[in-house]
Amino acid sequence: MFNPNNLGSRGRSPGTHVPQSSVLVLQRRVHPDAVADTGMRPANGLRRPDDHPTSTLPAWLLRAVTGICVLLVAYVFVRHGLAENLPAMADSVVRWLDLLIVLLLALDILPLYRHRRTWYHVWRDTWFDAVLLVAAMAASTHQSWGAVFVLLRQTVHYGRRGAFSAFTDSLSRRPITLLAASFAALIGMGTVLLMLPAATTDGRGVPVTNALFTATSATCVTGLAVMDIGSVLTRFGQIVLLVLIQLGGLGIMTFYAGLASALGVRLSIAQRRSLSVAVEEPRSIELARTLRYIILLTVLSELVGAALLYTRMSPRFATPGESLFAAVFHSISAFCNAGFGLFPDNLVSFQNDWLVNLTIIGLIVLGGIGFSVAHELLSRETFKRSPRALWRQVTTHTRIVLGTTGILIALGTGLFLLLEYNNALVGLSGGTKFLASLFQAVTPRTAGFNTVSLASLQPLTILIWVLLMFVGASPGGTGGGIKTTTAAVLLLAVRSQIRGRDEVEFAGRTIPKETVFRATAIVTLSALAVMAAFSALLVTEQQPFAALLFEATSAFGTVGLSTGITPLLGVIGKLALAVLMYVGRIGPLTLVLAMRTRERTALIAYPSARIMVG
After folding, report:
1. Which residues contact 441 (CB under 8 A, 6 or more apart)?
2. Where are the transmembrane segments (predicted)?
3. Which of 192, 381, 397, 607 has the fewest Cβ atoms nearer than 10 Å?
């Protein structure tokens, strides 16, 4: 509790007079009740759940609405997901019930605007409810799907009230395990949804092995496909795939926490500890701001990307709605570094379109460099500084990420142009050859799009691309691989050994030995994982050696590039790649830590031993 007598120990002399008004101000800042009374936010930046009411209907009526929503969503699942024919009377009843609960949602939200001082305060607290209300009204008038959005709103409403805090706290005590389990759960849900008859154009659903492979590929933002996404999957199946890509790219925990932060929901200490691991933000006070930035950057980037792509893709579709969906699909797929496309030839038909190529490249790089790096470079504070002042203030981590990314892109562009000039690039103009080389140098960084056929690449090009895919993207982003910083730390360690230095140094900073040990463990475990899956493919598949190695590395790096043999793999081969995609997305070292029962701290230290290596 605050004690005015302690002010002397905080830089004031004991005899300093402290005005009573100052004491009252400090007390109002720290007292929880005062926060509620004045509308001030707590120190962690998140509003209290009961700062302002976000509902006007009685609790018993809200519970009844939630129960009806569950029944209606179950009906939607059976009627549209399983494609079961139900009595016409049931359809009429469901339609009226759907309209009724959407009306109740409107009656629950709209009266809030009468009791607030300004509409801004209401919008700040209920913007998410308002968006869902509009979506529910549109869905209810179209196919009686308004209950889906009303149920989502009710779930968020109860989450605001802390109804799930005990459950989430119990899971948050082991953040790494929760991270791995959340991806596994999302893969399971995606597999079930893709197996529904409504997911495919032939009405039979995706077979279980292909559904598991596709759901894993989408959740792990890989892009390897065993079927033509544009022609085999219905719009429902493509939306399922798109949701898996979006949630998998951000991570379920990050998505949930970002949404909770935007809604002003207070997170517990255990939840904040888990999210600090997920978003790699150790500063608790900055966690809410970081989460809001991640959501905002993702939404804005994907909207801008979709708008640019729409201008080029609209002539290829019959209706504006189909064009808009294709633009949004490719924008999200590119930002999340997934590589899924709706066109049979991926993006080969756009190989000379500079706008499409540069838009996809920009989204891939922005999503792949990591949100912490993007925050250092793209924010209101950084826009006020000159480029030189900004570069002096960026962290060593950002310098390594940008330097490694730039070197890999430049090196990849030059090598692809040199090696494939008279092979995969033959027949193209000079400008198109450079653009295709630049595009193919960026996509091995876990994206997976291609504008040239990869089936006829030179053996040396395949080897170089295997190395680029193994490195992958940067930490804290939407891509996989061992990460650019891991490769950079190992190369810096080699440089230090060659120079006879005991410490690993970069840009006037010393890299801790623990970081070097961790990088060594990540590379070793990653190589073992790729070799294990590659060995399984060699035993079970009758495909060329180089193609199988390319496929295995593409799966581990969550890249998605393929020489065209993915649909030809057997069940064991597909399962081996699915496991490798999961390991690559979670990270082999993270997965090992998740399986460890408990942390052990050594209580004794053994004498040093001299071992000859090399």
Report:
1. 408, 409, 410, 411, 412, 413, 415, 416, 468
2. 60-78, 90-110, 130-152, 176-196, 208-227, 239-259, 291-311, 323-343, 355-378, 399-419, 462-494, 515-539, 559-583
3. 607
